[in-house]
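retry 2 of 3: previous attempt timed out while embedding zinc ion. Reduced batch size to 1 and resubmitted. Inputs unchanged:
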Amino acid sequence: MIEYPKDLLEFRDHFHSEAACRDYLIRLRWPQGWTCLKCGCREFWKMRRGVLCCQGCERYVSVTAGTLFADTHKPLRLWFEAMWHVTNQKYGASALGMQRILGFGSYRTAWNWLHKLRRAMVRPGRDRLAGTVEVDEIFIGGERSGKRGRGAAGKALVLIAAQEAGKGIGRIRLVRVASGSGEHLEPAVTQAVDSSSTVRTDGWKGYKGLKELGYKHDVIRPTPALGENLLPLVNRVASLLKRWLLGTHQGAVRPSHLDYYLDEFTFRFNRRTSGSRGLLFYRLLDQALHLQPVLTRELKAASPISANE
Ligand SMILES: [Zn+2]
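retry 2 succeeded.
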């Protein structure tokens, strides 16, 4: 692992120019040193605009090809600044905050950037939770968050999966679901949890089909003597998530933006032992390098409802 900035001053020292940002990307992408895929040569010349030229066969390689930054026309310094901002906001970054910090004229651009960064927070093909996993769903948003059965407009149903790790919580996954029926809950569990796992839920009928999907299904039945907290891990995640969302836009997270915040919360939660914000920045950058470029048109399906937030 290569060094990363610990605080704002170090961040500004590290990434004072485009060339410095590019050099950092080169070291992060090719920690063992760059090797030409065509001729095996390990030496290159640095050309303009982040292009490397192999000294053996004169093939050109872009430093940002195949990464989140591949088709951007904005300076890397600005992207780094955006990632530093995102990872340093305790309650998550808003598009408006991003617009102010980066000096963008358009809210839309800031919103697009946030959603591109989200792709780096949730890597496609990341491994699913395994072992013993608690699963439950909660309503987010609307007048009051709460349990199933009280569904109303403006609320979103979110499935929480929390991996047991000793007495605490390991990793989590959050998946937005259309309803609490098996038809929607089962694919969400499949997406979040490996089929070799034991899934612990309450007696809700929406989870009845888990056994057929190959899971060991551990159904917790409410016993008055034991009190209410039958799924302590998911309850803990749910309360942290609600508190975190309350701190974001004072809780006024639009349903259309909720997916972004769920992914950001998951990214932070699963790296909560990382300790430093600098390390969080490093992880996000590292994941951004291992993404195929996210084209702006892909984001269109998830357009913001209004440009006034
Ligand atoms: Zn070559």
